[in-house]
Amino acid sequence: MDGDSVEVALTESIQTASPLHRASDLMRVAGFDASLPCCQETDLHLRLACQGVRFRRLPETLLTVRKQPGSVSSDYTKLLLQHEVIFIRAAEILRARDELTPARRFAFARQLAADGRLLFRRSMRAAARRCWHAAATLGRAGLRSAYGRRTSRPLLTLLGPELTEQVMSAVPSVR
After folding, report:
1. Which of 53, 71, 78, 157 is in the most buried spot, having the most CB atoms within 10 Å?
2. How many whole angstroms from its chain centre is CA 32?
3. pTM of the model
């Protein structure tokens, strides 16, 4: 896949059944983290990317994923909550190795801020605040980029993410 593997792992949904990995790469990152309640594949691919593993995509579709009611992947809030843990852990791995580049900081911040927005809309305000705080710590530009509209960015600068979300939900034309 084109681009930085860390950024690809953050933004692409790489399903468990689709990739083939070298056994040595999997052993280097200790394989799946079975302690995670969900998002094990996201965590695995992000840790592999943090170790410099490059991903390649085949042009044809070889796998289709169907979400079933009651499955782990159908509980989007649970997935969002796990992203917070996984993304912050991966950013710390890169920071410790002095490989948390400005582009990676931006990508982590953008994803955390976007997840914060989605958590806020699901009435998970404390989790949303944690995501926004982590995003702001990684880079305000990434936080701002999660707010794409010209009307919401000035609100974000003036009010912060929580009040911006409240205004945007109260005035649908602002969204």
Report:
1. 53
2. 18
3. 0.85
The residue extents of the domains of the chain are 5-57+75-174
Q: In 61-124, where does DSSP find H-type helix?
A: 76-96, 102-121
Digits of tens for pLDDT over the chain (175 positions)?
568 899 988 888 776 666 778 889 989 999 889 999 888 889 999 999 999 998 877 778 776 767 677 666 668 899 899 999 999 999 999 999 999 999 999 999 999 999 999 999 999 999 999 999 999 999 989 998 888 777 688 888 888 899 988 888 887 665 5
